[in-house]
């Protein structure tokens, strides 16, 4: 397949095309690599809903789900482990893009949205996901809720890359920027 000329043109003008979807089928089939090559995809964002649909809609996960179930792993933890596995694989597929550009080639992995109003749980989940995936081109997606703002600061202060979601106003954007800069300042002081 040849590169899509419209997407190539957008890319040449600095537009970053991200895929809002991920599945093991797409990774294993080479479909993800094809989108990177042919459709100028330079990043991926995902969330628990996307993975829930991918897992329930494909037999490719059946053996892993069965194995985790036999080990007594609950549904939430199994989803987290399966998602981390696929996100790690996607980070590996995008590693060359990340290395070549120094800015693109990232995968954004969202913390469980049920934690959006709990600062400590969001931060704990962010650090746990970072550790589970263990790839430098990973973003941890954190919502810009009141509880999310200090979690953003704490996560950035730990040296973890963050993608902030749910910014719906200029006022919230300013609060996010304050949280971001505070995290960078704390990180710089720690080094």
Secondary-structure map:
Layout: H1 5-12, E1 17-19, H2 24-28, H3 31-38, E2 41-46, H4 48-56, H5 62-70, H6 75-101, E3 106-110, H7 119-133, E4 138-143, H8 148-157, E5 162-165, H9 170-190
Parallel strand pairs: 1-2, 2-3, 3-4, 4-5
Task: List SSEs in N-to-C order.
Answer: HEHHEHHHEHEHEH
Shape: globular
Rg, rounded, reads 17 Å
Percent helix = 55-70%
Low-confidence stretches: none
Share in β-strands: 5-15%
Major beta-sheet overview: 5 strands, parallel
Q: Which structural class best describes the helix and strand composition?
A: alpha/beta
Please report the total strand number as a whole number: 5
The DSSP helix count reads 9
Give the number of domains.
2
Termini gap:
47 Å
Outline of the structure:
By secondary structure, the chain is α/β, with parallel strands linked by helices.
Q: What does this molecule look like?
A:
By secondary structure, the chain is of the alpha/beta class. It folds into 2 domains: 110 residues, no CATH class; 68 residues, no CATH class. Helix content is 59%, strand content 13%. The protein contains 9 helices and 5 strands, in the order αβααβαααβαβαβα. It has a 5-stranded parallel beta sheet with strand order 1-2-3-4-5. Strand 3, helix 7 and strand 4 form a beta-alpha-beta unit. The longest helix has 27 residues. The relative contact order is 0.10. The mean pLDDT is 93.
């Amino acid at each position: 397949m040849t590169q899509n000329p419209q997407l190539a043109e957008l890319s040449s003008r600095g537009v970053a095309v991200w895929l809002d979807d991920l599945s093991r089928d797409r990774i294993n089939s080479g479909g993800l690599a094809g989108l990177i090559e042919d459709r100028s995809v330079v990043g991926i964002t995902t969330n628990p809903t996307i993975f829930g649909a991918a897992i329930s809609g494909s037999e490719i996960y059946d053996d892993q789900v069965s194995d985790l179930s036999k080990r007594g792993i609950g549904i939430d933890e199994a989803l987290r482990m399966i998602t981390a596995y696929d996100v790690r694989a996607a980070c590996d597929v995008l590693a060359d893009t990340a290395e070549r550009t120094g800015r693109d080639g990232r995968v954004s992995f969202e913390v469980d949205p049920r934690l959006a109003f709990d600062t400590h749980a969001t931060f704990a989940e962010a650090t746990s996901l970072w550790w589970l995936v263990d790839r430098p081109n990973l973003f941890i997606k954190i919502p810009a809720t009141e509880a999310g703002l200090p979690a953003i600061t704490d996560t950035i202060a730990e040296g973890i890359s963050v993608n902030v979601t749910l910014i719906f106003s200029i006022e919230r954007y300013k609060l996010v920027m304050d949280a971001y800069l505070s995290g960078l300042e704390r990180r710089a002081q720690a080094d």
